[in-house]
Amino acid sequence: MHDIKAIRDNPDAYDRGWGSRGLEPQTPAILELDRKLRAAQTALQDAQSRRNDASKLIGQAKAKKDEAEAQRLMAEVDSLKSVMAIETDIEKAAGEALRALLSSLPNLPAFDVPTGADEHGNVEQRRWGQAPTINAAQDHVALGEALGLMDFEAAARTSGARFVFLKGQLARLERAIASFMLDLQTQEHGYTEVSPPLLVRDEAMYGTGQLPKFGEDLFRTTDGRWLIPTAEVSLTNMVMGQIVEEGELPLRLTALTPCFRSEAGASGRDTRGMIRQHQFYKVELVSITAPETSEDEHERMTGCAEAVLKRLELPYRTMLLCTGDMGFGARKTYDLEVWMPSQGQYREISSCSNCGDFQARRMDARARKPGEKGTRFVHTLNGSGLAVGRTLVAILENYQDEGGRIAIPAPLRPYMAGASHLERA
Question: Is the model's pLDDT at 366 over the cut of 80?
Answer without folding.
Answer: yes
